[in-house]
């Protein structure tokens, strides 16, 4: 096999391990979001106070992920991967044992620090192992996170149903076991990653940072994050408070929305590799616009079908925006991931908190319609993004 062909092949086995790790990290994040109805009942919280919980988690990512990204660009810190697993699991476990709302916020911050430490390092590793199939590699990396986040609501609901809020203690078991396994795997992992990087060196040069593209894609991710986190946070309350459905079914509806994104991630990556990331991103937002616009007016099965389509399209953009950010910042891959997954996503958490205040004053239905309106500026910004194409050459 010639060097160019070898460099073009992704390291699938290690990418699958990375995807599993990503899934467990994001399982803890998804579980925390799903605990919001139980926490509202336990501490008699308003919508605004509920919105502060994801806000604290996302502000933690906002300020720390770019820092972790810069560190990742300057030095190899693969030990952050098992450490992040441990922090994510222990923070989630603590949520069920603290005795006040403010201590709950502190536990959420600990778990969020685990997520913040993982994502830039994990995305950097995925890029290094991608060969010439960057969208595919990022999809494998992201699909684990999407699946873990989607299963978080059912995971948390099962723990609460069986053990009450203190059942979150069991959430630390899988992250700690996987962290111990990763520690043993790291030397072999590091050697394989360095070998893949050596094969790739000299086959393609890194261009300068495209600051226009970086700023615009960051704005797109902020808007997308408000839409995604807003839906994940307030969809259960729309389902319970507006549609008068049983509380026990809210987690399943939330999981339907998030699992649809897993399928979107898998199908979107081959299209991005073939047709380019920008055309796929434009098409995703264009198709999302009518679905999100009618969602709050529907009931029953039509609502669930449209909800599935909206989740499919929103989460499918995660891979394309991450790849585009790295393409715009080829010399700062960790920082690019920190901006995309940390700063922009964290600002989405701020928007979600503001939506909580809106829900307190005007109702959850208004929040759902505001989320629909945000698709328009996201689509317009996507149209003016500088073009990039995932290279397979």
TrEMBL record:
Major location (coarse): membrane
Domain Major facilitator superfamily (MFS) profile span(s) in chain numbering: 14-390
Highest taxon above the source species: Bacteria
InterPro entries: MFS, MFS_dom, MFS_trans_sf
Entry-linked Gene3D superfamilies: MFS general substrate transporter like domains (1.20.1250.20)
Record's bilayer topology term: Multi-pass membrane protein
SUPFAM superfamilies, alphabetized: MFS general substrate transporter
Segments traversing the membrane: 46-67, 79-95, 101-118, 139-163, 169-186, 207-227, 247-268, 280-298, 304-323, 335-358, 364-385
PROSITE patterns: MFS
Key words, A-Z: Membrane, Transmembrane, Transmembrane helix, Transport
Subcellular location: Cell membrane
Name used for this protein in its record: FSR family fosmidomycin resistance protein-like MFS transporter
Protein's organism: Symbiobacterium terraclitae
């Amino acid at each position: 096999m010639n060097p160019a062909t070898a460099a073009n092949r992704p390291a699938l086995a290690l990418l699958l391990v990375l995807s599993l790790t990503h899934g467990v990290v994001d399982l803890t994040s998804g579980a925390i979001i799903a605990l919001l109805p139980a926490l509202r009942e336990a501490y008699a919280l308003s919508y605004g106070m509920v919105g502060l919980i994801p806000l604290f988690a996302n502000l933690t990512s906002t300020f720390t992920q770019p820092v972790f990204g810069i560190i990742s660009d300057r030095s190899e810190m693969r030990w952050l991967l098992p450490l992040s697993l441990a922090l994510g699991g222990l923070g989630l476990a603590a949520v069920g044992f603290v005795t006040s709302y403010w201590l709950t916020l502190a536990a959420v911050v600990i778990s969020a620090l685990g997520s913040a430490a993982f994502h830039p390092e994990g995305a950097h590793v995925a890029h290094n192992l991608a060969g010439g199939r960057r969208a595919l590699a990022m999809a494998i990396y992201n699909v684990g996170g999407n699946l873990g986040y989607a299963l978080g609501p059912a995971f948390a609901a099962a723990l609460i149903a069986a053990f009450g809020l203190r059942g979150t203690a069991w959430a630390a078991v899988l992250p700690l076991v996987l962290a111990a396994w990763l520690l043993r795997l790291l030397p072999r992992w590091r050697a394989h990653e360095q070998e893949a990087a050596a094969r790739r060196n000299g086959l393609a040069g890194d261009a300068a940072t495209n600051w226009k593209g970086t700023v615009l894609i960051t704005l797109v991710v902020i808007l997308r994050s408000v839409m995604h986190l807003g839906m994940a946070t307030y969809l259960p309350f729309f389902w319970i408070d507006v549609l008068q459905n049983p509380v026990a079914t809210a987690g399943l509806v939330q999981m339907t929305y998030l699992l649809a994104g897993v399928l979107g991630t898998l199908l979107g990556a081959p299209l991005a590799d073939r047709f380019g990331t920008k055309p796929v991103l434009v098409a995703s937002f264009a198709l999302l616009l009518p679905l999100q616009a009618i969602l709050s007016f529907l009931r029953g099965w039509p609502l669930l079908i449209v909800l599935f389509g909206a989740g499919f399209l929103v989460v499918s953009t995660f891979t394309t925006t991450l790849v585009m950010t790295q393409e715009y910042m080829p010399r700062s891959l960790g920082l690019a991931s920190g901006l995309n997954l940390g700063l922009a996503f964290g600002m989405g958490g701020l928007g979600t908190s503001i939506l909580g205040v809106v829900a307190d004053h005007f109702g959850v239905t208004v929040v759902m319609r505001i989320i629909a309106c945000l698709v328009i500026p996201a689509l317009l910004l996507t149209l003016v993004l500088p073009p990039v194409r995932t290279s397979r050459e």
